[in-house]
């Protein structure tokens, strides 16, 4: 008996030694990472099928069609063996109930009653489901009637009103006609209100969305441009998350603030507004007399009439009635558990809800999310396991005000705050050619690295990186201070390192009924190879963050960005009593801390043979935690003055343009105020804000260094 066992053990040991010696080495992480972007794993057919299925019907947040789309995402993720569930919220969404717009013209022209409808073209395969598209409206617009002479306010920016004021134009009691294209539409309405307007119409000018307005430019379906009847729908809400549950999750039966309190928050408009087409805007602007706005910037494209500012003589009656409904929204969450550090999360997020069909915005991103999930499933079948946990999030009600992501972040705030390594957002994955990226700066280097590993979908003899830098010699990197997509809660509320990726950025049929599969197939990405590239870039960034033993964060880039922003402050003609010294000092400490942790990181990489592996395990974890938590240190419990949901003191939206990304937003707000009132106290509050920013930067340095004071 004993003899037999011993013999069989010997055989087992011998076979093991034999196999250990002769088997090819186990595939390592880099092997899987290069496999991830290979042709054998990419599948443009499958991406195209996902997009086709997701966009067969319009699927606005809160609709049955969007719940069906959620079920599709859930079952697709589940079919890739990803544990998935739905996280629902009950949120206050608004829908249009009735709208009317009548223009009274000087005699003898008869009044015009606009149909406010987007036209269906001959042979449109989506003609039938188009009847399910909600009438054109602004989400959270104020219900009411505004009757008054029209004033043309250009792009509706603060500087446009400064020009009108300088020209002596009387805006009070007027209905403002403004055009889309430069700032967030909610701020167009807010700026008009602040100037005394009683209602706002926002049109899509052919100059901006129609190829410059030249007659030879063809519109959809013959060309990519917005048709004359096309309307950009969208939200005019200025906050993030359900307006009735500021700072806490909208679970069923939760506490809600009253409509009056919502109005007091300053985030919802106090005057009615409607989005209108170029065709309707053109009819209206022809009835506006008065002077010409100062500068060419006030004129239309080729073939358009001379734009004058008014007021009147054209008078409009704008009437809008909306209804607010507590609607159930569904985030889909899928999880691949990490093998070694399951309690560290890398999150990929994209929203699903669309104003209409949403082929570009957002389901090009959803199709890519599913492609990334499928490729990771294939990697798992070949033996790969992520070191850290990978989480797929498919958000709902982003269009209304980043609601699905914000409610989820508010609900899971503590878990996320202690465990998320990074959040990677893709909203519009593809609107055309050309890679675009924005990130918190410690991720810059990683994005550059990954862009060098992926082939340019529009020119196979170069990489995405080559085409990215071709015009500027430097990769153009945006920052995440704006409120444009679902990264906002992650960066601006809880301080998670984040990135946002896209191909083609802006596209002409944005938020209109023409954003459908036909447009994508004809103009956005005929071969679906740009989608393949986005999936490669997005997935590879996630794989590096999930698998690299030491997190690929470089805080040197952050220090450089902080320095740049501080330099910009020097040019802001500050009052002599204000000093930037505390800020500059904190940034130079931060730079030293970044160098120190980079050196530690290098030393760990060099010392790491298989012998020291066990010893280093907790050291690696500790270093990674410092890299992960340094971003959190930029947040402040009290948040920005007067905008306390925004906790991050380095990045937040501009006060007058929610799309605009500001560095040091608190300092910026204070300077603006001080410049307009010029009191000692107002300049002291600029100094206070400078101190506050300096203090969070010092916190971040201490976090990187990792020693108690
Ligand atoms: C501005 O126009 C409104 C009506 O549109 C009128 O009631 C008001 O008196 C005007 N203000 C001035 C200063 O002309
Ligand atoms: C404006 O239009 C609304 C809706 O059609 C109508 O009820 C209202 O009487 C109109 N107001 C004026 C002053 O014409
Ligand atoms: C494709 O990339 C190569 C290498 O960068 C470049 O020489 C060539 O001009 C590019 N082709 C086009 C059509 O842009
Ligand atoms: C996928 O890419 C191949 C090669 O570029 C192309 O021939 C095919 O038409 C594409 N499929 C779809 C659905 O676009
Ligand atoms: C602001 O006030 C100070 C004195 O309190 C004065 O010297 C300065 O000229 C003022 N600046 C502006 C722009 O009005």
Description:
By secondary structure, this protein is α/β, with parallel strands linked by helices. The chain has three domains: 29-92 and 326-547, Zn peptidases (Aminopeptidase); 94-323, Glucose Oxidase, domain 1, CATH 3.50.30.30; 556-705, Transferrin receptor-like, dimerisation domain (Transcription Elongation Factor S-II, Chain A). The chain is globular, with a radius of gyration of 27 Å. Helix content is 39%, strand content 17%. Mean pLDDT is 94; it is low at 1-5 and 17-25. The protein has helices spanning 2-22, 29-36, 44-54, 64-79, 158-166, 185-194, 206-209, 259-264, 278-285, 363-381, 398-401, 403-411, 413-419, 444-451, 464-469, 487-493, 517-524, 529-547, 555-570, 581-607, 613-629, 665-677, 680-705; strands spanning 83-104, 112-113, 138-139, 144-152, 175-179, 199-203, 234-235, 273-276, 315-336, 341-351, 388-395, 420-425, 435-439, 477-478, 498-503, 651-654, 657-663. Strands 1, 2, 4, 5, 6, 8, 9, 10, 11, 12, 13, 14 and 15 form a 13-stranded mixed β-sheet that branches. The chain has a two-stranded parallel ribbon with strand order 3-7. One 2-acetamido-2-deoxy-beta-D-glucopyranose (NAG) is lined by residues 100, 145, 147, 317, 319. It is found in: Endoplasmic reticulum membrane. It is a single-pass type II membrane protein.
């Amino acid at each position: 008996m004993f003899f037999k066992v011993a013999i069989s053990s010997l055989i087992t040991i011998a076979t093991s030694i034999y196999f250990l010696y002769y088997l090819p080495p186990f595939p390592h992480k880099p092997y899987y990472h290069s496999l991830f972007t290979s042709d054998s794993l990419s599948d443009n057919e499958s991406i195209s099928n996902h997009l086709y299925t997701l966009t067969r019907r319009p699927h606005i947040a809160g609709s049955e069609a969007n719940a069906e789309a959620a079920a599709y995402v859930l079952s697709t993720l589940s079919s890739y063996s990803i544990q998935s569930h739905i996280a629902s919220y009950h949120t206050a969404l608004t829908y249009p109930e009735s709208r009317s717009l009548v223009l009274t013209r000087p005699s003898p022209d008869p009044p015009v009653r606009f149909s406010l409808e987007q036209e269906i073209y001959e042979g449109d395969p989506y003609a039938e489901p188009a009847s399910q598209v909600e009438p054109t409206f602004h989400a959270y617009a104020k219900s009411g009637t505004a009757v008054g002479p029209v004033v043309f306010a250009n792009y509706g920016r603060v500087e446009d009103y400064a020009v009108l004021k300088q020209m002596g134009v009387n805006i009070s009691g007027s209905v403002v006609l403004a055009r889309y294209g430069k700032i967030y539409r909610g701020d167009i309405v807010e700026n008009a209100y602040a100037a005394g307007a009683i209602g706002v119409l926002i049109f899509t000018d052919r100059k901006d969305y129609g190829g410059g307005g030249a007659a030879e430019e063809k519109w959809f379906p013959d060309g990519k441009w917005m048709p004359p009847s096309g309307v950009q729908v969208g939200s005019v809400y200025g906050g993030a998350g359900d307006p009735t549950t500021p700072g806490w999750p909208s679970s069923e039966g939760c506490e809600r603030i009253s409509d009056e309190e919502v109005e007091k928050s300053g985030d919802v408009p106090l005057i009615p507004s409607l989005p209108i087409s170029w065709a309707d805007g053109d009819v209206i602007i022809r009835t506006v007399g008065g002077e010409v706005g100062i500068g060419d910037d006030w004129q239309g494209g080729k073939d358009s009439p001379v734009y004058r500012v008014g007021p009147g003589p054209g008078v409009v009656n704008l009437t809008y009635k909306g209804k607010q409904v507590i609607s159930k929204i569904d985030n889909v969450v899928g999880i691949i558990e990490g093998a070694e550090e399951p309690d560290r999360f890398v999150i990929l997020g994209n929203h699903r809800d669309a104003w209409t069909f949403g082929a570009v915005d957002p389901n090009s991103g959803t199709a890519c999310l599913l492609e990334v999930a499928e490729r990771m499933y294939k990697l798992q079948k070949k033996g790969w396991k992520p070191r850290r946990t990978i989480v797929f999030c498919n958000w709902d009600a982003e269009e209304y005000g980043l609601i699905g992501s914000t409610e989820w972040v508010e609900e899971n705030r503590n878990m996320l705050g202690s465990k998320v390594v990074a959040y990677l957002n893709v909203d519009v994955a593809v609107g055309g050619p050309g890679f675009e990226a924005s990130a918190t700066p410690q991720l810059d280097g990683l994005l550059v690295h990954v862009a060098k590993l992926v082939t340019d979908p529009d020119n196979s003899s170069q990489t995405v990186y080559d085409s990215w830098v071709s015009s500027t010699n430097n990769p153009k990197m945006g920052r995440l201070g704006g409120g444009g997509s679902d990264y906002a809660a992650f960066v601006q509320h809880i301080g998670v390192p984040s990135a946002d990726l896209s191909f083609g950025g802006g596209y002409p049929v944005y938020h209109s009924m023409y954003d459908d599969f036909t447009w994508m197939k004809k103009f956005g990405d005929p071969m679906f190879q740009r989608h393949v590239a986005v999936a490669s870039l997005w997935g590879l960034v996630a794989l590096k963050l999930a698998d690299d033993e030491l997190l690929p964060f470089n805080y040197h880039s952050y220090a450089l960005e902080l320095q740049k922003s501080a330099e910009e402050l020097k040019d802001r003609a500050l009052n002599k009593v204000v000093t930037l010294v505390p800020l500059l000092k904190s940034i130079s400490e931060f730079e030293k801390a970044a160098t120190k942790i980079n050196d530690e990181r290098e030393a760990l990489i060099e010392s790491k043979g298989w012998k020291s592996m066990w010893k280093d395990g907790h050291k690696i974890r500790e270093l990674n935690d410092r890299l992960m938590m340094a971003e959190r240190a930029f947040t402040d419990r009290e948040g920005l003055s007067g905008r306390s949901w925004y906790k991050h003191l380095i990045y937040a939206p501009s006060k007058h343009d929610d799309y605009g990304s500001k560095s040091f937003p608190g300092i910026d707000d204070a300077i603006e105020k001080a410049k307009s009132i010029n009191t000692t106290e107002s300049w002291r509050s600029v100094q206070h804000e400078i101190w506050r920013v300096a203090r969070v930067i010092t916190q971040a340095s201490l976090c990187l260094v990792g020693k108690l004071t």
